[in-house]
Design brief:
globular, disordered C terminus
Length: 241
């Protein structure tokens, strides 16, 4: 599958879980992938190695997306190393679950700064390049928690709801320059983040899902690919053909 042959993609939080699956899917479609991480450097290197084993190109960039200057500098390096930027999947995020009355300010701040401000930092840095090119695709990973809320996740739900509004506004700003901005709001996906949930909480969540199972990274990867027109036709053919 080479529908993105030569295109440059950045996947934040690409070292594991949803980000890893998306990075490998983009690489499989021919994209040259920048995998970003904050702490999981070894895991990110393994993703880059897997991309190279597939015959593609993967490079690791370690920085904190909550840091405005570090993010701007990292995207400058990516643009210089790869010669441009065509796709951003803004996926990196954290949780610090706690009931509101017990939540510490630090637990609120790190989630909002990473999830919401980090999305701003990455989108702004990517948009500057894409506007000059007059082309680009941005996909922001939000969450169903931002639409419905979850007990013990006021910080996470607020950050993800903010991404929804942010994406809608930015889409209107960038569309005239042929840059699309979309959001994907997964429910519970079977990843490292959800596997650490207590059994009682997992069962309570499953009872709210009609199919009685968590989503998979493979399904989410296909949803994200839908927003990349050059990949869309072959994916729909595989799904429904």
């Amino acid at each position: 599958m080479t529908e993105l042959q030569g295109k440059v993609a950045v996947v934040t939080g690409g070292s594991r879980g949803i980000g890893r699956a998306i990075a490998l899917a983009l690489g499989g479609a021919g994209a040259r992938v920048a995998v970003t991480c904050t702490q999981q450097h070894q895991a990110a290197e393994e993703v880059a190695a897997a991309l190279k084993d597939m015959g593609g190109e993967g490079r690791v960039y370690q920085f904190d997306i909550a840091d405005f200057e570090a993010t701007s500098q990292a995207f400058d390096r990516i643009g210089s190393d790869f010669g441009g930027l065509d796709v951003l999947v803004s996926n990196a995020g954290v949780t610090r679950d706690q009931l509101l009355v017990r939540m510490k300010l630090a637990e609120w701040d790190i989630v909002l700064q990473t999830n919401l401000s980090g999305t701003f930092n990455c989108n702004r840095a990517a948009a500057r390049t894409m506007l000059r090119q007059r082309s680009g695709r941005i996909i922001n990973i939000t969450s169903v928690a931002g639409l419905t809320g979850n007990p013990g996740q006021t910080n996470y739900a607020a950050s993800k709801a903010g991404i929804v509004g942010f994406t809608k506004a930015l889409a209107k700003e960038l569309a005239p320059r042929n840059v699309t901005v979309n959001a994907v709001a997964p429910g519970f996906i079977d990843t490292d983040m959800t596997q650490v949930l207590p059994d009682a909480q997992r069962q309570a969540v499953l009872q709210q899902i009609p199919a009685a199972r968590f989503g998979t990274r493979k399904t989410l990867r296909r949803v994200c690919s839908f927003f990349l027109p050059r990949v869309r036709s072959i994916l729909l053919g595989r799904l429904f053909g």
